[in-house]
User: What shape does this take?
Amino acid sequence: MGDQVRVLVTGPAEGAIEAVLPRRNRLERPAVANVDQAVIVCSAREPVSSLLTVDRMAVEAVHENLAVLLCLNKIDLLEPGEAERVLEPYRTAGFRTCSTSATAGRGLDQLRRELAGVVSVFAGESGVGKSSLLNALRPGLSLRTGELGAWRRGRHTTRHVELLEVEAGGLVADTPGLSLVALPPLAPSALAGYWPDLAVLAPGCRFRSCLHRDEPDCRVKAAVAAGELDRGRYERYLGLLDEAERTYRRY
Ligand SMILES: Nc1nc2c(ncn2[C@@H]2O[C@H](COP(=O)(O)OP(=O)(O)OP(=O)(O)O)[C@@H](O)[C@H]2O)c(=O)[nH]1
Ligand SMILES: [Mg+2]
Ligand SMILES: [Zn+2]
Assistant: This one.
């Protein structure tokens, strides 16, 4: 889905596909090609999204040259100021963000603007409200949405993918998936390159090969200590770094 083709027009309403044009990218889950942006949807209540999952999806998106929009949904369940606290580290990292409530109809105009004219794929844990958001964006659409289970987790309601047209020529794929791409294990030394907030600091480290963990004169660690880099983001980076080391060696 999402392939661009060259069509030979053979009549007033007729054509034949001559060629499938080269793909800019191709995601595995959902299987969509030529995507411009990943909309990573999360929620801070019912369910509480794992930020590790959010960060992992952001790595995958940056790896695939996708623009990232982080969308915090279900803000109707949050205290004032809470949405800002969740989103702030991501804005500082250079990602675009928005906060929405699909059920209370909040933040939808901004989300519409972010989707205009580009091909987006919605990703995020089950139950965060991806299908609900698309339904809210496009009145008349009725994607199935799920009840939350006993643990306030979703139940993987969406099981297939469709490209849907939203405002102003934007196309959106709802997804059943948690992972955007099945990335081969990344080299540990390459991982930080997919974290925009770490990557900008790395040239300040003493060693070019710095992994920002145990090395002396590390600009990244200094930034965490000084409160310039979000500690949560940094710790999740360290977690994925360990994981990269385990899986890359085995690969
Ligand atoms: N309070 C609140 N509930 C919401 C909001 N958006 C969605 N929900 C509810 O959350 C539940 C899950 O919504 P879905 O849209 O099915 O979630 P999904 O992300 O598509 O889930 P999967 O298809 O399983 O990946 C439903 O009961 C929705 O009514 C919101 O903004 N606020
Ligand atoms: Mg869904
Ligand atoms: Zn470093």
Residues 73-74, 76-77, 101-103, 124, 126-132, 145-148, 154-158, 176 surround guanosine-5'-triphosphate (ligand 1) (CB under 6 Å). Helices lie at 51-63, 82-93, 108-115, 130-137, 188-191, 196-199, 219-225, 231-250.
